[in-house]
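Team,

Forwarding the record for the chain on the shared tracking sheet. I've put the sequence and predicted structure together so nobody has to dig through attachments.
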Amino acid sequence: MTITPLIVGQFEVRLLDKTNPKELEDVQRMRYQEIVLEYNKDNLNEKGTDYSPYDQYCDHIIAIDKETNEIVGTYRVMQKHHVEPLGGFLTEEEYDITVLKQSPYPILELGRAVVKKEYRGSIVLKLIWKFLLQYVEANQIRFLFGTASFHGTDPTVYQNGLAFLYHNYLIDNEYCPKAIGETSGPMNRLGLAEVDPQKALEEIPPLIKGYLAMGAKVGDGYFVDIPFNSVDVFIFLDLLNFNETFVKRLIK
């Protein structure tokens, strides 16, 4: 399905051209520079790219600075038919999403959200979100999901933030997945009365706060992703129950 590119000022946002191998390589190189070099220097490689077997099957939203012809932002999106050759979604390595996959509604996994450091104060992320909503509408998506990260691999550093999410934003229906694997653990080590709200809000990363403002909920449990040096939580957004006012203001 063709979605018209979004052009605002010097920026163009569109889907990656799958017939152009260089565009995918540019995306992987940018992800390497902005994720691996910045957050996980133990995962360096000689090629200097953030390779994933999922990349060739899914869609990539890309933001291009037309003045430099450079990809400056990206968001990877995966529908059910994208991951059939691979046997499942990337999120399934960390969470049991069996019930969500059985939903009669179209679902979309979000991942690898990256904006180049020098463009993070610009409108690039806003434009990517605006294009994402066009993509969602064109494909009649009902549920958005994926994982979002706290930096580092020690969940105790974020015990207030994790417990705050659990007690206030836990998915309250059958689609709530549980974290799996040896590095998973409970988010509610602190009871509701024990949580320091101020510390919690200081610990929760801006991206997760943004998802919550849109109306997102979280799954049950965290997962420590050692290769990516992160503590991950499951994020879920039902587009029939999201904060439409906030989203409209976000993309205005």
